[in-house]
Amino acid sequence: MENLSEANIPRPEYPRPQFVREGNWINLNGEWEFSFDDADIGLKERWYKKENSKNFDRKITVPYCFQSKLSGIEDKSFHEVIWYRRVFEIPNKFKDKKVLLHFGAVDYRCLIYLNGEYVGSHEGGYMGFSLDITNHVEANNVLVVRVEDPSQDLEIPRGKQYWKLEHDMIYYPRVSGIWQTVWLEFLSPEVQIENLKMTPDIDKSEVIFEISINGMGFSVLFLYIEILFKNQTIAQESINLDFIGKIGQKKDKKVIKERIGMYHRIIYYENPNRFKFKVKIPSNLLFLWDTHNPNLYDLSLKIQNETTGEIYDEVSSYFGMRKISISDYGNKKQQILLNGKPLYQKLFLVQGYWPDSLYTPPSDDHIKKDIQYVIDFGFNGLRTHQKAFDPRFLYWCDKRGVLVWGEIGNAFRFSVKSQLRLINEFVTEVERDYNHPSIIVWVPLNEGWGISGVEKDPKRGYFTSTLYYLIKSIDPTRLIIDNDGWWHSENNDICTRHYYATTDLLPATLEEEISSHKTSVPILYLKPHEYKGEPIIYSEIGGFGYDFKENIEKKWGYGGLIKDSESLFERVLNLLKEFDIRKEWIQGFCYTELYDQYQEINGLLTFNREPKFSPQKLKEKLDTMFY
């Protein structure tokens, strides 16, 4: 891929792997000017003006937050207002193009200025956003970003970012400002593909596409679609886009071949720029995605003038044909199925911090290394915990066949404001990550964070139910856990519980399991709800602490501290053997956790990703267990 920016910048790869435009982007990562604004005087003094560069007295390496070592600053004290400044040029070849400015993620609120003018804002620390800056760019440009990150606001979905000065127990350093890639993209001003949503249907051997296009259609404008598998063309289609932008023109004529099964009036009567169609995949060329064979189809989309050959936009993507479902499977109990077959989930809890860069993976190789360790230990998936992960992390899970539970950081105080903030961010996450075949479960809440007291306050329970139905309305193809760990309501696809007690207290039968739901602390189901046969997964177990290098101060672990590698291995193995005994009615587990996090030494790897015992040693055992 051609990258037009300077060489050797951090995170140089294209940041959006499921919506790739090659050769027309500039990566803005690297050195920016930077300043703390502890007195909050920057707006009054108009630091965003082009001539006010004197206010920026530091340098920072984007996309690393100022609290991290790789940022070049590494200041973990409270700084709630910060400013960034970057100068860039527009190459002559792009001077007549539509210009989009993309931010992968900025924590938490930001104002964006270009050449001294306000161009947009965003709130939310996990999701990216884009701005059309076409009317504001010049040959030489000054980009200024003001970020506000209230360090102690408990109504913000902050996850594991601690609101006290020093991290402690299960809480870690804060992440403020830009922490994912910033880039420019240059498009045709006439027509652009804005959004792509892909829904596989393995039962019918077809994939449903929903596409949004910005622009006006005309008789010789076509969308060309090509699906490939291992460089072999599987299907090709073309759609005449003469209907784009013509609201209210209701016609009966067919505009696409019948095999796609779509009529003009169905396409656009309500929204002519967003339409849906399906493409058949020949049954002999249907290759399913699963953990053993993560088959992926490549997709090419191209908008072109059929007469002149001019290409207005070109996007490449990929998808996996797979289905996650719940079905009755023997003994009248519900079973989680992947492509119609029973799925036992062996998951790691993964929290997404790196020692030198915090939330931001230092490189693609660091991402691949973490995911490979999941496989090397004999596990088949992971639960992303209290953070929305980088899209490239999900990309490598897709490629390696690793299952993912998608989560986001929770707030810690219940209010209308905290509800709206969580809804806005999580809905955006579900939309952004919808096309990843690795994601099979959505988890909006963890252990009642942000809804504490729900057992006494019905409003908090209504919010939990609202999240379940809201996510289902956006993505009915995946399973949803209303509140992971306990306090489940009637609206829940999987019964999950967190268990850090000794193995002798594990329920010995399904009957004992159900009986324990009412006596556990906290209780598993909110009254008057109770278990109704849904699949059971112990979504946090283990947590055995072992200080591998004996250099961690204030060390902490859920399951007590262990003194050597062999003892850790035996304790992990004995715990998993207990779950193997119960595999008839417990359909999976999530081990806490893949790697240590600061003082929390529950990992099978150190924070620097050193194995505490041989991963292959555990994999050999797990390969003979479960199903």
Characterise the protein shown here.
It is a single chain. The chain has 3 domains: 25-187, Jelly Rolls (Sandwich); 192-319, Immunoglobulin-like; 344-622, TIM Barrel (Alpha-Beta Barrel), CATH 3.20.20. It is built from 8 helices and 30 strands. It has helices spanning 264-268, 364-376, 391-400, 416-432, 458-474, 510-516, 565-581, 615-622, and strands spanning 25-27, 30-36, 58-62, 81-89, 98-103, 106-107, 109-114, 117-123, 129-132, 140-148, 177-178, 182-187, 192-201, 206-214, 221-229, 232-240, 274-280, 297-305, 311-319, 324-328, 334-338, 341-342, 345-350, 381-384, 403-407, 439-443, 479-480, 495-499, 536-542, 588-592. The two termini are 41 Å apart. The model is unreliable at 1-5 and 249-269 (pLDDT under 50).
What's the gist of this structure?
The protein is an alpha+beta fold and 627 residues long. The chain has eight helices and 30 strands. Helix 4 runs parallel beside helix 5.
Biggest sheet, open or closed, and with what strands and sense?
8 strands, parallel
Main sheet: which strands, in order across?
Answer: 27-26-25-24-23-30-29-28
CATH architecture of the largest domain: Alpha-Beta Barrel
Measured distance between first and last alpha carbons: 41 Å
Residue share in helix: 10-25%
Number of helices: 8
Q: What's the alpha carbon Rg, rounded to whole Å?
A: 25 Å
- Form type: globular
Low-confidence stretches: 1-5, 249-269
CATH superfamily of the largest domain: Glycosidases
How many domains comprise the coordinates? 3
Strand tally is: 30
Which class of the largest domain in CATH terms?
A: Alpha Beta
CATH third-tier fold name of the largest domain: TIM Barrel
Percent of residues in beta strands: 25-35%
Class from secondary-structure proportions: alpha+beta
The overall average pLDDT, rounded, is 93
